[in-house]
Write a structure and sequence with these properties.
about 110 residues, 3 helices
């Protein structure tokens, strides 16, 4: 091989090695910044607040959607029993009463 071809190949290999080394030092822009704290999914699932999303009240049975899950009378939510289901509220055995957001329960003209 001629000296020019050898120099060209060596230069090319050197540049490839340098660019690969630089790529290792680049920061991934999708990674959280320094000081970010990871929260385990088990800790994120534990939420003590209860939100009444909706109520379906029929003649024979009633259902309440609390934290996007369906419950009926006597079911337990986070260790508390549902004692009553009304048209806009749910009573719990620990004395709490969950009420739907007021704008949802209001009707036009009132």
């Amino acid at each position: 091989m001629s000296l020019i071809k050898i120099n060209s190949v060596m230069t090319l290999l050197f540049l490839l090695g340098v660019s690969a080394a630089q790529a290792d030092t680049l920061r991934d822009p999708t990674r959280p910044g320094h000081g970010a704290v990871a929260i385990s999914s088990a800790a994120a699932d534990i939420d003590t607040s209860l939100t009444l999303n909706s109520v379906v009240k029929a003649e024979a049975s009633s259902y309440a959607v609390i934290n996007n899950k369906i419950f009926s009378l006597g079911d337990r939510v986070q260790g508390v029993t549902i004692t009553a289901i009304d048209t806009i509220s749910v009573s719990l055995s620990d004395g709490r009463k969950l009420t739907m957001y007021q704008a949802i329960t209001e009707t036009k003209g009132n």
